[in-house]
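User: Here's a structure from my thesis project, written as structure tokens. My advisor, Dr. K., wants to see whether a designed sequence matches the one we expressed. Can you design one independently, without my sequence as a hint?
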């Protein structure tokens, strides 16, 4: 049985590597090699077309990864060395029957991906975050850290930006909560989106950002540019940079936030807060940049507040009470997302930060998702209104009479 790697070697023999080969010329060469092979051994037409795609992807794109990247049903790709590839489809993990033919080929693809994001990964620096041209998030871990590596994890994002209308159709949020949050965004409330891994924080942030007034100046700050802010003419996108081979040239999220404050933004959007940059983000929220947005990992709104406290203390030695006051005055609303046991993603709670009092940040739940049962394996539920918004000044200033 003719294998793709045999054909790959034959094409390499024919290629003139001293010059750039146009796609058309490469395609012709692939077809000629396939025709020669089928003359020696029968290859079904379907198999021949599949081999042609695999060979083209091996030379021009991301090898066998390309097939997974083009499959819209796949949301996550997990490569555990050359032997195992796992895919997430509809929230379920499945094992792929395909694998890389060699460690060298997998490492070539990794270097191709990482170079496209202007990042570096090698044995001296074996961990890196990168992104693909379509915005998909990539994490790479090489040996000697990964004993069965190289390990590649790719979180894919939909080709088209997800809208609130789609989230309502999927049951991730109800119309009432959506309309409430839209008012808050337009009125300039500072909103923090929390949730666990894979709960849909970036997707929800993108959907919510579509309601930012179009005449404002927005600055986005991310480790890897993943946000898709649509229809904002005055948009500045900043991305952090890792150190080079000499260990210099690093640009951190903290530096980008401080720089953004000098760029006259109306709102600042920090893709995700993970560490000491939390203090800089809070200072931005407390210096007149109303309507700013960010996300963070946590299991509940209160857990998010505790994590923010810890992250701020990583960046600055302050009394805990001072940190809590900064959080209470800077963040207006926490939207907490979750991934339920049926793999669906939902807004689980919308909470208002009321005040700092007696050594504690006071939080009031406004909406909460409550389960009512299951139907056809899907969790059913409703969003119950828990309390009214207390701080209505921004809504009133924005012209909303009904809160």
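Assistant: Designed independently from the structure alone:
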């Amino acid at each position: 049985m003719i294998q793709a790697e045999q054909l790959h070697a034959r094409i390499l023999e024919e290629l003139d590597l001293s010059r750039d080969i146009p796609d058309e010329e490469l395609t012709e060469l692939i077809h000629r090699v396939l025709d020669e092979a089928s003359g020696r051994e029968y290859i079904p037409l379907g198999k021949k077309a599949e081999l042609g795609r695999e060979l083209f992807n091996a030379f021009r794109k991301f090898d066998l990864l390309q097939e997974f990247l083009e499959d819209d049903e796949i949301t996550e790709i997990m490569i555990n060395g050359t032997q195992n590839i796992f895919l997430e489809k509809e929230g379920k993990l499945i094992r792929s029957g395909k694998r890389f033919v060699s460690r060298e080929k997998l490492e070539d693809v990794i270097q191709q991906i990482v170079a496209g994001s202007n990042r570096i990964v090698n044995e001296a620096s074996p961990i890196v975050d990168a992104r693909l041209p379509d915005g998909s998030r990539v994490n790479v871990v090489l040996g000697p850290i990964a004993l069965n590596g190289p390990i590649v994890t790719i979180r894919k994002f939909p080709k088209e930006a997800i809208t609130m209308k789609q989230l309502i159709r999927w049951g991730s949020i109800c119309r009432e909560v959506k309309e409430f949050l839209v008012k808050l965004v337009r009125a300039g409330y500072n909103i923090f989106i929390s949730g666990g891994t894979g709960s849909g924080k970036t997707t929800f942030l993108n959907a919510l950002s579509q309601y930012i007034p179009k005449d404002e100046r927005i600055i986005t700050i991310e480790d890897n540019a993943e946000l898709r802010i649509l229809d904002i003419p005055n948009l500045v996108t900043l991305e952090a940079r890792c150190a080079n081979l000499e260990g210099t040239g690093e640009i951190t999220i903290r530096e980008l936030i401080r720089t953004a404050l000098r760029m006259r933004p109306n709102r600042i959007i920090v893709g995700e807060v993970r560490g000491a940059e939390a203090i800089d983000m809070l200072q931005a929220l407390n210096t007149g940049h109303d309507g700013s947005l960010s996300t963070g990992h946590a299991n509940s709104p209160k857990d998010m507040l505790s994590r923010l406290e810890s992250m701020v203390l990583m960046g600055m030695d302050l009394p805990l009470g001072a940190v809590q006051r900064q959080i209470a005055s800077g963040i207006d609303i926490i939207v907490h997302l979750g991934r339920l046991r049926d793999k669906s993603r939902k807004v689980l709670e919308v909470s208002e930060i009321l005040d700092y009092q007696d050594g504690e940040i006071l939080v009031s739940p406004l909406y909460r998702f409550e389960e009512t049962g299951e139907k056809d394996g899907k969790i059913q539920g409703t969003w119950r209104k828990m309390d009214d918004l207390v701080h209505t000044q921004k809504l009133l200033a924005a012209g909303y009479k009904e809160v």
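When you compare it with your expressed construct, this may help: Residues 222 and 271 are 5 Å apart (CA to CA).
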